[in-house]
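User: Let's play a game. I give you a shape written as tokens, and you guess the letters that built it. Ready? Here's round one.
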């Protein structure tokens, strides 16, 4: 679900092309190797649904993509494009290929660290800038918003594999909140309303714990998830997440939730997201059976 927005770096922000992609700092042979590794990984990732049975994908294609993105990142550690694509592939491997609990923990732990390193690089690149100036600078770096988004996803999935109290004590909710807000500021349409989806899911799922997460708001969850749905109503994740939040926190709109679930349950998976759509359609059917 990658945004079509691909901004270029503007010299007005005092940044260089190498901050965005690192390619300007590479020798010609190294830049060629990097480009080939990235393109090869992209080809493998595009094949991630090959051989899938419904919502269960074979691990081979995405593992090949992960290997390619790791190689591209090693050749060019400053590349935001290689980094967010690696995070996205790790998420797919952990979520849609039948990974067990321990394997998921390992994959999301890796993704969390890779994402945090990328965010730290971006924060250093925009050091001293605040508010509108910081957002404008990040908008000028291709792939920056995606790095924040997929890092937030990694943190969220990592937190879900731990107890809610342990995740809160580790600072996961605040970290996810800040990452999601940056995504919204940089590009609210990125990943089909991804920033709002991430922030809404956080407020939906996180407990409100005094002195830790007292700021969590179920109302905010519904507002943000509705914004994500408005941005991309055909996105199956937006449909399921909003329906779940309505059923948990706004039972007066139970029929709206049922309508969302029915729509998702009957979806014809999109070619680009065949496994992902199949997974959320199956979730919708299960939820719908319980709320009839």
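Assistant: Ready! My guess for every position:
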């Amino acid at each position: 679900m990658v945004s079509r927005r691909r901004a270029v770096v503007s010299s007005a922000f005092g940044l260089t092309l190498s901050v965005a992609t690192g390619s300007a700092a590479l020798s010609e042979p190294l830049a060629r190797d990097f480009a080939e590794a990235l393109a090869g990984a992209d080809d493998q990732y595009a094949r991630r649904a090959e051989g899938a049975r419904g919502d269960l994908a074979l691990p081979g294609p995405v593992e090949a993509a992960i290997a390619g993105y790791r190689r591209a990142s090693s050749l060019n550690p400053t590349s935001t494009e290689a980094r967010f694509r690696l995070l996205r592939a790790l998420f797919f491997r952990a979520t849609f290929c039948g990974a067990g609990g321990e394997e998921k923990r390992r994959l999301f732990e890796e993704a969390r660290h890779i994402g945090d390193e990328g965010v730290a690089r971006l924060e250093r690149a925009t050091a001293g800038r605040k508010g509108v100036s910081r957002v404008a600078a990040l908008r000028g770096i291709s792939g920056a918003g995606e790095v924040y988004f997929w890092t937030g996803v990694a943190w969220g999935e990592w937190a879900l594999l731990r107890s809610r109290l342990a995740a809160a004590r580790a600072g996961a909710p605040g970290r996810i909140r800040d990452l999601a807000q940056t995504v919204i500021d940089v590009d609210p349409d990125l990943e089909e309303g991804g920033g709002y989806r991430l922030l809404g899911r956080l407020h939906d799922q996180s407990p409100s714990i005094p002195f830790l997460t007292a700021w969590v708001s179920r109302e905010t969850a519904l507002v943000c998830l509705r914004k994500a749905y408005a941005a991309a109503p055909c996105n199956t994740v937006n449909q399921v997440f909003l329906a779940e939040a309505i059923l948990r926190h706004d039972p007066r709109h139970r029929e709206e939730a049922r309508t969302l679930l029915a729509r998702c349950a009957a979806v014809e998976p999109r070619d680009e997201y065949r496994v992902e759509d199949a997974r959320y359609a199956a979730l919708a059917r299960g939820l719908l059976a319980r709320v009839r």
